[in-house]
What we know:
Elements: E1 5-9, H1 14-30, E2 34-38, H2 43-49, E3 55-58, E4 61-65, H3 70-77
Amino acid sequence: MTGRVTLYSKPGCHLCDEARSVxxxxxxxVGTSYDEVDITSSSELMSAYGEQxxxxxxxxxxxxxxRVDEARLRQALT
Length: 78
């Protein structure tokens, strides 16, 4: 099953590490899963999100970039 949240990130990104912590915590609280996509695996993803990572999507729609607002993410998932 694909998660409701998708986190676009890349290795060595401290904002991505912070976003992952928020996404993991909120998803665990609301009982859903998330997927993480390494944008360095695709030139298209690097072009689309390279300057905005981390980027989060909820249910296929862009939700946040650079930082994940924990309360806003929780509200979107409940």
